Amino acid sequence: MTSLHSHPLFSRLESAQRILVAGAGGGFDVYAGLPVALSLMHRGKDVTLANLTFSAVEGLPLDAWLAPDVARVTPGTSLHQTYFPERTLASWLDLHGYPSTVHAFARVGVQPLRAAYRALIEQHGIEAVVLVDGGTDILMRGDETGLGTPEEDMASVAALAGIDLPERLVISVGFGVDAYHGVSHGLVLENIAALETEGAYLGAFSVPRTTREGALFLDAVAHAQAHTPEHPSIVNGSIAAAVRGLFGDIQFTTRTRGSELFINPLMSLCFTFELEGIARRCLYLDRIEDTHLMRQVSSAIAEFRDGVDSPRPPRRIPH
């Protein structure tokens, strides 16, 4: 049992020296894990960064591949497209004097993704994994009316659920941002409460801009927005706005034109969990276990959803 002044996430990672912080859902998800990753680095931990990628990494040179479906990305990695969050993050890390390799997992099904995770874990002697979701759809069981975009998140959860490690933890950052994709955050809170009753919820903590890690996170997001002006991260832009203390319909990209945003302080909270608990509560995880392609993951989830007779309706948060 930990003390109140010591958050359980960091207490659970205290004995691990080599830690993998990985973005679960593709895109810029790994950025949502930066505050924790940097905090661990500042405490002398050997942190490896990775992200399930949306970029066309099939075009990377052979020497970039650590193993099938996992590639090393550095500031100088050649890929002829401007949207490449892993390279953008590698460049930012290099600018600030941090180790500047970010590993990219190909967008594949559970079996090859698990093999890629195993290869990276063995290569770096990883003792603990922190899986990060920029958003809250990783907390959906599957029987809710709206799931958001769960394919990549749950493929990552399923892949790691089949790997034995001393610690496998999950962080969800960006409470409220998935409302755009139909997620009921009343149900998110209900699911968190259920995870608490099962002992899988480890509590939450904020990322203040007055901390070294909070300030660096804001700088990293600004750098990413400047280097990916045509496709900035809505999720991390929203989290960063919340960290800065902004509130309400704060528009920072034309991608959200016509939509009403609700930037709020809860977006900067890191909700933390045991991965086993999230895996155990997902009602369709067994159905995606044998997938090899991401479209098979999508089909399996859709087939499960077709069999849900009474989806849980959205739960209103009183106001």
UniProtKB/TrEMBL annotation:
InterPro entries: DUF1152 (IPR010581)
Superkingdom classification of source: Bacteria
Entry protein name: DUF1152 domain-containing protein
